[in-house]
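Reply to dn_fold:

You asked what the input looked like. This is it:
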Amino acid sequence: MNIVTGAFGYIGRYIARHLLDVGEAVRTITTHPNKPNPFGDAVEAFPYSFDDPEKLVATLRGGSTLYNTYWIRFEYGGATFQQAVRNTVTLFECAKKAGVSTIVHMSVTNASVESRLPYYRGKALQEHALIDSGVSYVIVRPTLVFGKEDILVNNIAWLIRTFPVFPIFGDGRYTLQPVYVGDVAAIAVSCARNGKGVILDAIGPETFTFEEFVRLVSAQIKPGVKLVHIPPAIGIGLGRVIGLAVRDVILTSDELQGLMQGMLTSRQAPNGATRFSEWLARHKDEIGLTYSSELRRHFRGR
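and this is what came back:
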């Protein structure tokens, strides 16, 4: 039995689908167990129950491998990075008590306890908690993950479709290496089977500057959109104004700093096969048609 956290979400959904496709049994632990189940009776859903460890142990019991995608993108409505780290520690402790033999943890490239960015520091603290847990582990660190259900890339496309100009923060020369969500899932499942005590990045085969990335998207969905270089602080301010209109957090200052510092790149050789440019050409008529809300997907209705 495989237990996947967040199988109704994004990366967790692709991991669950990959496992089901190869004949594996899957159970999920989720913040929203009453959400529509995309897998029907094939995947049973349970709540996280961080405040009731014995219940969480019971949910985890019988599982051999735990795929953990639990995290928050930003702090909101009482949910903090510190709390998310504590919850992760509880999850790993309960998994050990339940007899889970391997934990595959989804992290992020360049996670570091020395980082000044709480997102990356928190991810590193999750990793340390897993390493210290005594359970056999695999840590997968994706770069910028793209796919049909993605929020960040979809909303870049939505902004391009919606407005006559698109902001490029600073010089736009900082780089990113997008990786397809299906490749991330395949890497995670493969590592669970073939490697223990492994920490590796999940990286796509293409590297873009941010400006190149935006130009590629705009060329496919709205050729000729005007790109305007602006100071990062002004960009964050504009994002907040648009965020008020769509009732969401479009981009945080920490996320922008991470992007501009090259945190979504890796020195490791690419291990994802899907090229973003080719995927985009196939899905250009689908992405960015509607706005994808982080708050609606992950925070409202808790």
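The mean pLDDT is 95.
Hope that clears it up.
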